[in-house]
């Protein structure tokens, strides 16, 4: 059967057909390694997302244990412990052969320039692994089935993982006000200028303004769809989404041909929350999709950022609701404040500064080396700093611009100078 | 000399001339009781606020120890431990005799219908005692001299203490936007309708809108001035402030004739913070008077409430700044949310509900009796509840309306019904 499947239309550097090892789950300890054929794995993962919605807890766990092809076999054979899942899979099987469907989808994907990315690929985004252990306080099916994606369909040239490494989600209401879309455009433009990828959901209103802002900055933007990547939804945004595919990435967990069903947006939102370094909500109605996304961001412990608005605006009610009910949600009013928040995780600050602790008490190792390489009372060039700190020049330049943003160094002529005395830097 | 001082033009029930006992300080243990003649005490307190600005830490402590008249004697004699205070008092003494000044001020006050209220009076507002032990993290003179007032000049018929018992401060920028004044007017109107006194600083913009909102509701409002109560400042608000004096209260720590000097507003702000059950900032520029008031509210542990606004508005920058830098500051968007916050202290909830604790686990005694007097599954009238709970009817009505606001009971016909099952009420 494998010879009916097209070779992958790929940017990535994996060789189709090589045996791969199923991903292990961070925090869950070693998972049994299952050797699976690459093409067979792809086919099975696509078939599984056709048989059941992505995020399904039982399926994801089984895939970790025995690999996607074996799970597919078991589902087709009706060998499913979960009675509800067994029923829905049986119903779906009456609509066709999942393997056949997957083959067609992969062939169509190739023709349309869409590639499939699976966890064994180098470009698989690592942050999504946090969904493996996520538990939400709230009940309901979409709060239960929040496991990592089985695969991503991707349109666009950038490697998925590295594009998402420095990414910020900016999301919000479809029925946004001028205030909301203007603020969103400004924020997206500014964070894109700083080299961050702007991720959103491709919808009207705030989402579209976020993508447009990043495009206006010639920055990178990613739209996470809840349908096949061949049919940008909503249709009114298709020109915008085509531009996103050309200069950034259009991605989806759902196979080519999948419809944008209403509940899929709720399933998709966990990816927006988990794929990014932090999420900003600009405008949101009460108890809306954006507030649901935020509950996932908060549960993941990622920066949950909220732009306030007039209390007289229905489109800011959801924003204020999030701020009122979650002490961990942060009010943000500018791109600088957003970058401060996301900078806290994995960027230039290892941990959020608490109480009277000074910001540079918490610098990561590279930033500390850069700070220590700066003379106490005069400026130094990036080249000299690189030599002194024994770091690569691009690393030094990157750290310097982050340290500048953090207010710890300032530009002086061709170089940089410490803003504070260097005592306590270590 | 006492016979040159006018009898007090007073609503209060103290008899001028009777010996009184200086206030003790809550939380400081018993303070030495100093028997002082009432008129002599008044005169000395007025003279002291003429010699040095209210809030002075050294003077206040001395007054607690030896009484106001003795402190005045010592200041006049140059017997002051604090060298800086000694210098400024000496300079002031060259301008005239403080006792003579105080006599004139009290006589003018009587003519103008302004009374003097001192700590030994029954109408003295008790909450101000919290300033006795307040310490701020920030430095600077106005953050040091934050002790309770020595006296209040009052215009208006309501007893000061009871008027402030259920009071909320609503303050903000003078250069307010239409958004700010509209929101302020709405909030003040609504909280005044619920029987709360609206306190503000009498300034243009947010302050004026707060007073007007309360007046529109036929509610009570108090303006705390930073100059003599005979000369409402700013002049542009004099018609408004005269109306406040007629239907509410105009109050000040400064004697009749005192000018509204710039630094006096910063001294005055501690009274706004300490006199009320909570403070709402509607619009504020960065690092403005309103943010200074809020630092006192937060240090006092009172509800510090902030109305957000557009991030594009300079008049909301201070609001968002307060929210971002103080985890204890609460975002509020409606009168209901404000009443929830102030209800937490001394109203229907003994303590803020935490975690999963149910709100009615924390009811005060009267509310608990009312809840227990309600049948499990049908409504009851206030009269029947009063009989069952062995409470007065007005008390029952008041508790019912608070319980209704808290969502614990709902109106049903002529009576009320429990919203939740009564288990766990006790």
TrEMBL record, chains A, B:
Annotated signal sequence range: none
InterPro entries reported in the protein's UniProt record: DprA (IPR003488), DrpA_SLOG (IPR057666)
Superkingdom: Bacteria
Domain Smf/DprA SLOG stretches: 116-342
Gene3D superfamilies given in the database record: 3.40.50.450
Family according to the record: Belongs to the DprA/Smf family.
Protein name: Smf/DprA SLOG domain-containing protein
């Amino acid at each position: 059967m494998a010879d009916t499947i097209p070779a992958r239309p790929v940017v990535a550097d994996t060789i189709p057909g090589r045996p791969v090892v199923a991903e292990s789950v961070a925090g869950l300890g070693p998972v049994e390694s299952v050797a699976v054929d690459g093409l067979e794995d792809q086919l099975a993962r696509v078939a599984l997302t056709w048989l059941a919605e992505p995020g399904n807890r039982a399926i994801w766990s089984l895939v970790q244990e025995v690999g996607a092809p074996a799970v597919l076999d078991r589902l087709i054979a009706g060998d499913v412990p979960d009675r509800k899942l067994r029923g829905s899979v049986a119903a779906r099987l009456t609509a066709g052969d999942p393997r056949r469907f997957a083959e067609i989808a992969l062939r169509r994907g190739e023709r349309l320039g869409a590639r499939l990315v699976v966890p064994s690929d180098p470009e698989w985004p690592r942050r999504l692994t946090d969904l493996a252990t996520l538990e939400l306080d709230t009940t309901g099916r979409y709060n239960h089935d929040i496991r990592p994606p089985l695969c991503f369909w991707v349109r666009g040239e950038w490697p998925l993982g590295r594009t998402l490494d420095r990414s910020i989600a900016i999301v919000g209401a479809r029925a946004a006000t001028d205030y909301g879309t203007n603020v969103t455009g400004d924020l997206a433009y500014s964070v894109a200028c700083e080299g961050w990828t702007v991720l959103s959901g491709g919808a009207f209103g705030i989402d579209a303004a976020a993508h447009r802002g990043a495009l206006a900055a010639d920055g990178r933007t990613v739209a996470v769809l809840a349908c096949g990547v061949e049919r940008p939804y909503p249709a009114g945004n298709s020109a915008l989404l085509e531009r996103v595919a050309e200069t950034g990435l259009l991605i989806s967990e759902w196979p080519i041909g999948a419809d944008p069903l209403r509940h899929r947006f709720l399933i998709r939102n966990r990816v927006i929350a988990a794929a990014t370094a932090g999420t900003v909500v600009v405008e949101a109605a009460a108890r809306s999709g954006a507030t649901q996304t935020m509950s996932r961001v908060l549960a993941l412990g990622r920066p949950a950022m909220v732009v306030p608005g007039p209390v007289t605006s229905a489109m800011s009610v959801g924003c204020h609701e999030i701020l009122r009910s979650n002490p961990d949600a942060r009010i943000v009013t500018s791109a600088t404040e957003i970058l401060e928040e996301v900078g806290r995780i994995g960027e230039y600050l290892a941990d959020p500064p608490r109480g009277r602790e000074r910001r540079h008490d918490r610098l990561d190792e590279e930033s500390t080396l850069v700070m220590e390489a700066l003379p106490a009372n005069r400026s130094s060039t990036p080249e000299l700093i690189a030599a002194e700190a024994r770091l690569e020049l691009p690393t030094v330049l990157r750290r310097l611009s982050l340290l500048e943003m953090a207010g710890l160094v300032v530009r002086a002529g061709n170089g940089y100078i410490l803003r504070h005395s260097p005592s306590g830097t270590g």
